[in-house]
Amino acid sequence: MSAVVQLPRGRRAAFVQAERRIALLGTGVVGSAFVARCERLRLAGVPVPGFAWLANSRAVVEGGADPLRALAGLGDAPRRGGAWAAWVEATGLRRGDVLVDATASDVVAGWHSEWLARGVHVVTANKLGAGAALARAQAIREAAEASGARYGDAATVGAGLPLLRSIRALVAGGDRVLAIEGLLSGSLAWLFDGDPGNRPFSARVREARALGYTEPDPRIDLSGEDVRRKLLILARAAGIALEEEAVQVESLVPAALAGAAADAVEPLLGTLDAPMAARFAAARSAGTRLRFVGRLEGGRATVGLRALSAAHPLCAGGGTDNIVAITSCRYDRQPLLIRGPGAGAGVTAAALLDDVLSIPRGPLSTR
């Protein structure tokens, strides 16, 4: 809603449009890349909204005229207690502002629908909004529809590849999605690209983490949980109301590693080596390749490691490529294939900013 300014009699009242602002939650690898990309595009003349503030789990600072300096100053900012949501409440986001969620926080994701209901646009790389409980995903959709605020989620699957956009366009055009199958994790695609031979699998995991391909806790990737969330997001975009527990997941994480505290993960990564060496040896003997696949068909959803022939479309990529095959009534004989880089801070940050810039300009509240 716009604030109306009362002008002297005889003059037409004018609508005052407040300047849209960005508030960033999460200043890790992706969040930092997002700030840097905003500044590069702003210097190139792109009208990127300014930053109201930036926050991580410990502190919050005003964005000001130099958000890169503000980002660097977060380490010296006074530590603040309380939950993420309480900080957001205290900063006075107004209708039309954009909350960018670059966290992996369940608490933050739980507030997405509340912010949308207030007319605050939400742009997110956090999969725990639309990729967690079905009730939460439905609340997000309903809040956005009711308020008119945008929910930008392109960065949640495929690091901005046109996966969600394509699925939604098919459904909006009257098509029906019959199956979705693909490599949905850039980190797992990279880990299974080729045959690591005699190199320990744990060494590959450490390298993927150092490159920023995996989550800070690589068990989230190796457990299949990350792929499960992405498959849920795609299914729900296709109009399939899939519950979390409906997805059958094969975890690659041994029991000892799965039950370890966060600070004990590193020394236990070696427990991956023997079982994974056996899987690679079996695939090599059969002339197949290992790929970690998410699949949805006929209401049945599965996530896990599959041995595929070299000619299979999901073996065509390399590196961190995501490859997704979408079968629909329109694409029934030959699926629609979408392929491209599915991991990395740069492409994820670009997807976030694309969603921010795609929000139409409109009357904003000055309250």
TrEMBL record:
Residues annotated as domain Homoserine dehydrogenase catalytic: 162-357
Pathway recorded for this protein: Amino-acid biosynthesis; L-methionine biosynthesis via de novo pathway; L-homoserine from L-aspartate: step 3/3; Amino-acid biosynthesis; L-threonine biosynthesis; L-threonine from L-aspartate: step 3/5
Transmembrane segments: none
Cofactor dependence: a metal cation
UniProt-listed InterPro entries: Asp/hSer_DH_NAD-bd, Bifunc_Aspkin/hSer_DH, HDH_cat, HDH_CS, HDH_short, NAD(P)-bd_dom_sf
SUPFAM superfamilies attached to this UniProt entry: Glyceraldehyde-3-phosphate dehydrogenase-like, C-terminal domain, NAD(P)-binding Rossmann-fold domains
Key words, A-Z: Amino-acid biosynthesis, Methionine biosynthesis, NADP, Oxidoreductase, Threonine biosynthesis
Aspartate/homoserine dehydrogenase NAD-binding domain mapped to chain residues: 26-151
Catalytic activity: L-homoserine + NADP(+) = L-aspartate 4-semialdehyde + NADPH + H(+); L-homoserine + NAD(+) = L-aspartate 4-semialdehyde + NADH + H(+)
Keyword Transferase among UniProt keywords: no
Enzymatic class: oxidoreductase
The UniProt record lists the keyword Chloroplast: no
EC number per UniProt: 1.1.1.3
Family indicated by similarity: Belongs to the homoserine dehydrogenase family.
Full protein name: Homoserine dehydrogenase
